[in-house]
Amino acid sequence: MNIKELNPDASLRAAYGARLRSMREARGWTQDHLADLMGYSSVHISAVETARKPPTLRFSRSADRAFGLEGADTFDRQWRELRQGSLLEGFPEYVGYEGRAVELRLYQIGIIPGLVQTPEYARVLAESAVRRGAISPEQALERVDFLAERQAALERSRPPMVMVVMDESCIRRWVGGDEVMEAQLDRLIKFANRPNTVLQVAPFTIGERRAFNLPVNLLTMADRSVMCYAESQAQGNFDREQTSVMPVLTAYHQLQAEVLSQAETVAMISQLRKGTP
């Protein structure tokens, strides 16, 4: 059999594939045998080993189960390191702090913020990106799974305070049809009723008083340090320098003073839920 030589130093994906092959061969397993254990085809195993196909989160966890891996040296962890290369700059570092923050302040334009999206809403957005050719079907699954993990990280015994300001466009833009959108609006109303959350809509009528033109996330950590992550279509920036972060926090507070109250926000969402303009 003509076996392709691998260079683990060529890329993180190549290192992943080389390790998968090495561990499989060390156990005397064929690709067919590993495929049976993992629930994939031998062609898929071969493609990952030779770096022709990127591994996914589900593939990595299946490999960990097949090889009995736990702790720090798993394929799951190696996948996360690999995946960081495809994320906007700053976002992997931001997510590392997000799950430990004591306060989160989010501002979003155009779509519901990820941390309060329903799985169905998130799936529609991911599938739309697939149809545009922006991501692969496997990356779409990873995107939805990754978002679910971020949401789960906030469901802890002492949950953080989460403040969300959404531009009115977030709830006016109908995503996925009536059933998906109605469930998403219900999710927002339930989110607003939690004791550790604040939900506000920035109505179109505030005009030039809207403080931000791009999505912004602010994290407050247990030591009261504040961090900021902001992104455009193609760039992300994670900032921990207080001299540049504090003006953003001030602008966020100014924005909250201009937007609808939570009660007014819930009333607007409820009207949309009932089909009232």
TrEMBL record:
GO molecular function annotation: DNA binding
A Pfam family the protein falls into: HTH_31
Annotated InterPro entries: Cro/C1-type_HTH, DUF5753, Lambda_DNA-bd_dom_sf
SMART domains: HTH_XRE
Domain annotation HTH cro/C1-type: ranges: 20-75
Domain of life: Bacteria
Name of the molecule in the record: Transcriptional regulator
